Every structure is written in C-alpha cells, then in structure tokens.
Amino acid sequence: MLGVMRGVRFGQLCNTNGIAIGVNGGVKPKYPMKQCDCESKKQDILISLIDLHHIREMRIYKKSLYHKGRLRAKNAIINKVAELQESPLVVKPIKIMFMDEMRFGLISNYRRSWSLIGKRTVIANQQEFINRYLYSAIDPITGENFHLLGFNDVNATITKKFLEALMEEYPEYHILLVWDNAPFHRKKELHEMAGLTPMYLPSYSPELNPVERFYGEVRKSTANRLFQNIDIQKDIIEEEVVKWMKDTDKTQKLCGYDWIIEQWRCI
User: Fold this and answer.
1) Which domain holds residue 41?
2) Are 197 and 80 spatial neighbours (Cβ–Cβ below 8 Å)?
C-alpha cells in the first residue's frame, strides 16, 4: 500500500526500511533521500485511510441527499398545481416563481481571471464587513423576473414586503412561490397572503433552485474588484440585474431547468 507521508517531500514514498524512494520504487529520486520513522509511517497511512473513508462517506451522503431531493421534487409541482386548481379560493391562472435571497458586501468576491503567462496573478483583497441583500423571484417557464435590493437584513418582515411588491407586479396571477427551508420562510404571516402559495424545496437541495444559478451570474459583475462603499457595489449589481430583467429569453435559458419544464408541460 502506497501513500504520501508526513515529513517526506511530495513525490517520495518510504520503503520498509524507512528510506525515501522514488515514486516508481527503483528510480533515483530527484531530491536527496530522507530518513523517516516506520512507526510514524504506519500511523500516517492509517490516518490517511481514515480521512479518505470519511471523505468518501460524506460524498456518498451528499449524493444520496441530491437524489432524494430530485425524487421528492419529481412530481411536487404537478401535485401542488392540481391541489390549487381544485381549491375554490384560487380563481386566477397560476404562475410559478422560484425565490431566493443573496447577500453582497465589501468583502472580496473572487473568480477566475486572466493573467500573462509566467506571471503570478495578483488580485487585491478587501475585508470590510458591510453587507446588503438582494431578493429575487424568477419564472423559469417564461424567464420573467422580479427583484428588490438594498435591504440591510433578511427576515419575515422584509420578505413580506417583497412578496407584496411581487403580487403587485403580477396582479392577474395566483403565484406558486417555490423557496428553500430558511427559518423565516416558515412564519405564519407569509403563508396567509391572498394570491400567493408558498412551496418548499426538499431540504439540502440548493441545486434545485434556479435562482442560485442566476446569483452565480450576478456575482461575476463584482468579482475581483474593490469598492469604496457599498452603494457603488449596489449600483453595479442593479445594472446587472436590469440587464437580466430586460432579456427574459436569456433568463429562461439559464433558469429553465428540465425537471421544472417537464412538470409544467404535464399541467
């Protein structure tokens, strides 16, 4: 059994005599040979195996959560829409929208960047803990999207204001709002709003929410940059969001997940 040991330069292994050897065993190593303790070597191997086992278990666990989430969401939209259509309280056409919140602030936001070959990439760093929040709701069927930004916090009170503005934007629809299991999403006042029905995504399934993907694109507008104050950053994010609001086709291509479209076509 082979493994890289502590105290041994990368690319070198230890033989049974505790002598550092090359990766291929008989090949002379590039660096000077280094003595190491065989007992320490065995202990390091054991620690490495335990770490690998934990990593493998965590990956399997996350993968199982992902598949369970997909299975739970498989017919969730169809079932919820059917339930609303049978309700005498719902007389308007149903519009599905996914919602989420994004925090942005003066702490550095890193992304991949270009640099000259042979030169180290240098990106300025900023550690300022001033934050604001962006609320977004996106229709993955049509690409229509609605946003409010600049909030100092996320809570049930602010969320209710956003939902009221959302319903004013689409008064001709009954909105089926799909969101995550954030604690403040469970407040009773958010579930008693006429013209809107909240619906939860499966737990531990952020990849099922297309708004997360939208936020990934929005964050690119402020990546690898420094800002003197939060208002400058807010204006840049607002400009980026307005571009997406105007281009509903682009938004639909980004957020029109197959599992959502397939269910909507069956309604």
Assistant:
1) 13-66
2) yes
